[in-house]
Amino acid sequence: MSTIQHLIGGREVGSAETFDTLNPATGEVLARVASGGQDEVNAAVAAAKAAFPAWAATPVKERARLLRRLGDLIAAHVPELAELETRDCGQVIGQTKKALIPRAADNFYYFAELIQHQHGETYDSDTGHLNYTLWQPVGVVALISPWNVPFMTATWKTAPCLAFGNTAVMKMSELSPLTATRLAQLVLEAGIPPGVFNLVHGYGHTAGEALVSHPDVRAISFTGSTVTGNRIVKSAGLKKFSMELGGKSPFVIFDDADYERALDAALFMIFSNNGERCTAGSRIIVQHSIYERFVADFAARAAKLTVGDPLDPNTIIGPMISRGHYEKVTRYIELGQEEGARLVLGGGKPEVAAHLAGGNWVQPTVFADVDNRMTIAQDEIFGPVPCLIPFKTEEEAVRIANDTPYGLSSYLWTENTGRVLRMAKAIEAGMTFVNSQNVRDLRQPFGGTKASGTGREGNHYSYEVFCEAKNVAISY
Ligand code: NAD
């Protein structure tokens, strides 16, 4: 079996230690991967630092051209990348092929365009100074990604990072290293100079810690759990941060909502991506007058979702990423029952084909009559396990929606305009979708409040993470 290497300074580099990456649907070993630590991180940061001056000085038009070429290469490799992603992380092929990998190409097209319109502010002041703002690249940036939508997240970080003239050292999750490796290869194929993008594989406590605490790393764009985000803030010292962390997003449905559309969207927001989605609508908060009907319809529809081989285009729900994550999700399913929530669907293992016997399978599981103070309503389960919670009044809906440490996304279903305006203000979240599932437009500021993180990425919001604003004041 070949070993997947790091990519440092444009060259493949190995490590004495390795780890295996497994197919979560079968348990088979997909590849052996070099496991980096301090030495590999030092080499990657040195390569990124050396490449920085020339890359930062590369004309914007040329950087944009190279990023567009990278986007084209990704677009040309969608079937291959989608299959690799599905094998490595268990996201179903219908999603990886149609949505997640094509979106990765869009990330590069988008930021290639954006940098050509980037400009600072200019103003004259009473003191006889002309002020202007320069947005300058920060230098070497650490890009740390989780396993749930690995290629999309990796490119969502790499595109702005490189577009603004920074160089990067990426550490992908040890559970899903394969498509990031292809990304590093395609970066070179696109003609982006060696050292501008470097990839070190490894565990969080080894490669990850070494990277975030490295003194030559100037900024960290991190996506992952709130626990790890807190830990990184402590180890990293004074650096620029973007922290895209966990969520427990409320999905609030009033009795005047378009019932069928709300039902469809509620199902999509918790069961797509196997429920392993930071913006999952995992607390479905339903007005009491339609609550029992909704519980029955939701459970009936969820029971029909096909669980199985993620490479089959008809599959809706694939496996959990790892044995450890499977155990975490099933422990929450037990806990929900211990806490007294009503189990209306699932709770066990789905039947799967013989070749999938070694996979990490969880049945779509629905809990109703959940009290928002229960652990299953407070913790991020990150699996196909929604909590259905009844409410009576608008005030109660807001209180329940906000009664969580998290504040990433939120969903609101009602035809009452005044209520939309009041609740959009009152809900503590970085994003509110009204009468809609999560529909991403790359111009939106993406990010969360409270324990869901700091900073926003997308559009000009990405300047704050990947650029330094320098003011120049000229006396006249
Ligand atoms: P995780 O925090 O365990 O790991 C994320 C990454 O951090 C991995 O690459 C890991 O190796 C690395 N890491 C771990 N410890 C580290 C350390 N001490 N120093 C540096 N790096 C370290 O998260 P996960 O289980 O891979 O991903 C799931 C989590 O990610 C969920 O909480 C989910 O909500 C969150 N997530 C958030 C968003 C968002 O945009 N807000 C998007 C996707 C996933």
From TrEMBL:
<keyword id="KW-0520">NAD</keyword>
<dbReference type="InterPro" id="IPR029510">
    <property type="entry name" value="Ald_DH_CS_GLU"/>
</dbReference>
<dbReference type="InterPro" id="IPR016162">
    <property type="entry name" value="Ald_DH_N"/>
</dbReference>
<dbReference type="InterPro" id="IPR016161">
    <property type="entry name" value="Ald_DH/histidinol_DH"/>
</dbReference>
<dbReference type="InterPro" id="IPR011985">
    <property type="entry name" value="DH_HpaE"/>
</dbReference>
<dbReference type="GO" id="GO:0018480">
    <property type="term" value="F:5-carboxymethyl-2-hydroxymuconic-semialdehyde dehydrogenase activity"/>
</dbReference>
<protein>
    <submittedName>
        <fullName>5-carboxymethyl-2-hydroxymuconate semialdehyde dehydrogenase</fullName>
    </submittedName>
</protein>
<dbReference type="InterPro" id="IPR015590">
    <property type="entry name" value="Aldehyde_DH_dom"/>
</dbReference>
<comment type="similarity">
    <text>Belongs to the aldehyde dehydrogenase family.</text>
</comment>
<feature type="active site">
    <location>
        <position position="244"/>
    </location>
</feature>
<dbReference type="GO" id="GO:0004030">
    <property type="term" value="F:aldehyde dehydrogenase [NAD(P)+] activity"/>
</dbReference>
<dbReference type="InterPro" id="IPR016163">
    <property type="entry name" value="Ald_DH_C"/>
</dbReference>
<feature type="domain" description="Aldehyde dehydrogenase">
    <location>
        <begin position="16"/>
        <end position="472"/>
    </location>
</feature>
<dbReference type="GO" id="GO:1901023">
    <property type="term" value="P:4-hydroxyphenylacetate catabolic process"/>
</dbReference>
<dbReference type="InterPro" id="IPR016160">
    <property type="entry name" value="Ald_DH_CS_CYS"/>
</dbReference>
<keyword id="KW-0560">Oxidoreductase</keyword>
<dbReference type="Pfam" id="PF00171">
    <property type="entry name" value="Aldedh"/>
</dbReference>
